[in-house]
UniProtKB/TrEMBL annotation, chains A, B:
InterPro entries: Homeodomain-like_sf, HTH_TetR, Tet_transcr_reg_TetR-rel_C_sf, TetR_C. Keywords: DNA-binding, Transcription, Transcription regulation. It comes from Streptomyces kaniharaensis. The keyword Lipid metabolism does not apply. Residues 1-61 form the HTH tetR-type domain. This is TetR/AcrR family transcriptional regulator. One of its GO terms (molecular function) is DNA binding. The keyword Lipid metabolism does not apply. PANTHER family: HTH-TYPE TRANSCRIPTIONAL REGULATOR LMRA, TRANSCRIPTIONAL REGULATORY PROTEIN. Residues 24-43 bind DNA.
Length: 192, 192
């Protein structure tokens, strides 16, 4: 792998594990196995490298979520595919965890990929819910944008509950809870 | 205020703002306006002081949530009181944000108050939902424990979405979404 890519990948991993505040330029260089001079040859500094790494993580997360939400079946099935995807729950979300980092939130360059990823995700799920309502698959009883925000929040909050508990179960519970509430919005009972 | 209390309060604030990894003993001493010797007179070190501060934050959060969940009205009303409480959304949750901190999660002493707070909160909301179902106020269509986990996750994930966006609106959307889904579980339409 090229030096530049090794630096970006190492930064992606460290940001996921330790956050921005907890990731030093030295730790990045050590994980990438490159010297200080090489890092500053490719990037102006930690903010520049972190912004590049975050943009790449955001693209990867978006591609995975887009595939889930394009699964076969109804709007409910697609949202279920997103919610039930196999996850390394205790690792948390590589994008969501950035929102806790005060230095990320304070820097427009670093916050942008985090904001854009969630904007896109909420918009895509809202679209699916609106399509399901228009097709008569889902009741008109809920607001698509609000419901989509709740679905995305359940996943992000599920990570928080699981990490707090040191086990994946609370994440799975939250997802089952969201699916139970969403299932009640279906106009036809498909459990039979 | 006594020196010991000043140290605890300053640590509570800094943990909320900067997390555990981002809070240095020096920053705590500066905010509390006490010297290093005084800090180490009262506490063995940062982990000891942080554990005390986190236990106090957990007690405070629990007291506030318990009051919301004892609001007048039905189970739905009480959960709505919890979800709709006026919050400084962009500050995030003082307990939930700790779950992103790898050093908190790795230390049983630091993780315990975080885990216990969410266990209690999920349990209390599950109890309310089960009571609402037993009283015929809510349908039997959802599992109380799973639904409670989803409710708590919506709040924690709502903070993530709001901080990512740099504005409170995505939190409010997620909460409205959860309330819309919960409202559909009521056996009697109270919106009329």
């Amino acid at each position: 792998m090229a030096t530049q890519d090794r630096l970006i990948e190492s930064t992606q991993e460290l940001l996921w594990e330790r956050g921005y505040v907890g990731t030093s330029p030295k730790a990045i260089q050590q994980r990438a196995g490159v010297g200080q001079g090489s890092m500053y040859h490719h990037f102006t500094g930690k903010p520049d490298l972190a912004a590049t790494a975050l943009r790449r993580s955001a693209e990867q997360m978006r591609a995975i979520a887009a595939a889930d939400l394009a699964a076969p079946g109804t709007a409910y099935d697609r949202i279920a595919a997103y919610l039930l995807r196999d996850r390394d729950v205790l690792r948390g979300c590589r994008i969501g965890r950035m929102a806790q980092d005060p230095d990320v939130i304070a820097d427009p360059q670093l916050r942008a990929p985090v904001e854009e990823t969630f904007d896109w995700l909420r918009g895509r799920i809202a679209e699916l819910i609106a399509e399901g309502q228009a097709a008569g698959e889902l009741t008109m009883g809920v607001d698509p944008a609000d419901t989509a925000a709740a679905v995305v929040a359940v996943v992000q909050g599920g990570y928080v509950l699981a990490r707090a508990a040191g086990r994946a179960e609370p994440f799975d519970q939250a997802v089952r809870g969201a699916l139970g509430l969403l299932a009640a919005q279906r106009t036809v009972d498909r459990t039979a």
